[in-house]
Amino acid sequence: MQHIHVDNSLCTGxxxxxxxxxxxxxxxxxxxxxxxxVRMEGMFPGDVNVCRQCAHAPCVGVCPAGALRVDEQxxxxxxxxxxxxxxxAEECPFEAIYIDPFDxxxxxxxxxxxxxxxxxYCQKNAIKIxxx
Amino acid sequence: MGYGYRGxxxxxxxxxxxxxxxxxxxxxxxxxxxxxxxxxxxLPEFVAKNTDPLGPDNALLFLTGPVTGTLVPGGxxxxxxxxxxxxxxxxxxxxxxxxxxxxxxxxxxGIAVLGKASKxxxxxxxxxxxxxxxxxxxxxxxxxxxxxxxxAKYGEDVGIACIGPAGERLVMFASINSDFFxxxxxxxxxxxxxxxxxxxxxxxxxxGVKCYDSEALMDKVKEYRHALDKSEHALKxxxxxxxxxxxxxxxxxxxxxxxxxxxxFPEAEGQIDGDGFIKDVVKHRGCIGCLxxxxxxxxxxxxxxxxxMVEGPEYETMALxxxxxxxxxxxxxxxxxxxxxxxGMDTISAGNVIGFAMECYEKGILVKGDCSNLELGFGNTxxxxxxxxxxxxxxxxxxxxxxxxxxxxxxxxxGAIRFANHIKGLEFPxxxxxxxxxxxxxxxxxxxxxxxRRAWPPKVESLGKIPPDTTEGKAKIVKTMYDENxxxxxxxxxxxxxxxxxxxxxxxxxFLNAVTGMDFTEAEMLKAADRxxxxxxxxxTREGLGRKDDDLPYRTYNEGIKSGPxxxxxxxxxxxxxxxxxxxxxxxxxxxxxxTRETLQFxxxxx
Lengths: 132, 607
Hints:
The structure holds 2 protein chains of 2 kinds. Chain A is of the alpha+beta class.
């Protein structure tokens, strides 16, 4: 399965990936509506956190609405089914599922249907596509 | 106003503890763009003539621009606009960080802070909510602890601007800090914030920024990304950050050395220049959305200061707290940088006042007894570090130096004014003005005092084909550079990305139009720049500033650069006068530098 791999040593903490992600998904620049997040470690940028597209994704099992499923390419989220219960976010061992403050639904990387927008705009090539 | 602009600012009164929203008419935005331009339109509305800059009637504006909050290169800036306690005139001081994004996300183009709180407060803006939080527990704390504690309590995702002990004590070069290491530091904006008992501004918003033509915008960003990869200049800056500038200024003989006595500092090589700096760089750091990431994280690995880590030092810091003090010990400069950041002080002005004190000491104007028993000779790193604390806390000699170089020189007397390098009270940045008449003019006419970010004439004087030691054509060069940067600083974008790839005014206009859906033209932008500079001039004229203040200090006229390729160079009053006459004429100002009635009419400015 393809997923996004981040070399944190190259990350400048610029959050362009976050902006690109919200633009791609929602047509707006919004750091809070992104499925990829730069986390701080004290006063300095720490790591970039994004869904690992687990083959045996724990989030899928806990979703009561059947909004999450593992297909050949990714762990995908159907936002029309999502009820915003937040169980998936709690279950994710990587804390890589977020809650959208705008509509209360889950936010999760689905590789933009294979477009990998964040990868295209990362100036330092810290974000890469890898295959298991 | 659905795209880019929010069309309103939040106005908060700390005396009355109330707030309201002020609409910004489309016509105002069209004429003044945003950022600096918006500040030039709003400050005279909020601040009456002869207002005490450190009194409750001054206003402190935190403004964004139409492209703030987007992926437009360098779009993470905000500008603090106020009446400067240093110059008594218009002050705009720039910084970057989360705050800029959050102001926009909260639904505003800016936040205006009026009045004075009776007790220390944190002004919190959370979406539509405004709260005045008691700050008694934070008052006295350094900026790192202040921001750290607020983020621990309210979340990592807040945008913060705060002051440190220097701002609380109204140090004339106190800064406003964001994201721990970014400062709006020039012109005393931190002192104004301190005078209002405002320890921090904390903003969080939830609404994203929608653009009129996102597709065009994203394509243009991608195009820019690829242009960066091909620009040798950009790649070098990405690698070395701003300290690379020292390799250039040292070679050209315009590096401030020992309080601007000399223009070369051979000890800098491989120590505090780009080549030295890069040895300590552990990571590159970018402001939000910036693809260049000119900022660097440096770490000291050995010696007395081992373990110190900072985002910086920038060139200005390396020069003013390094060569200007005769110091080439990089670790000591890094420690000084950290101290200035924590205490909340401008490294540029701090380096100037310490250089000034060191020269006074070496020339016998100050003796050890005057200086809290410090040996103040050039090169003394321990004394530099102690002086920074004395200044921030206003103890001993620090209380005098905290007033800035002009006031300190006047208080010390004994001819100390000969060593005070400033314009309108604001200390020199790290380019020796005697090394190029263009730099001297750019400093002299700067409305906020000596400033390196409005025009950078070395590009054509020292690095180009224009002779540095002539007056001819300099006014035109300076005006053109000023106007271009005024567009950038109003849009509001960092001037770095456009110097790297490069982006010209036409590109900036395309970005603006893609974001806002307006139909700005290049010609309209440049006319707006003229309008904005004239508005600022009107403000300064109203406050009593004029031609007499567009002047250079003693050393620039009376002493030649001591050594190096520009040895002996200095300005004459006559040369400056010729350039001023021409500059005023190009601006449509009279011989005293006052905008004429015809100019105001042409620019659509009503009195």
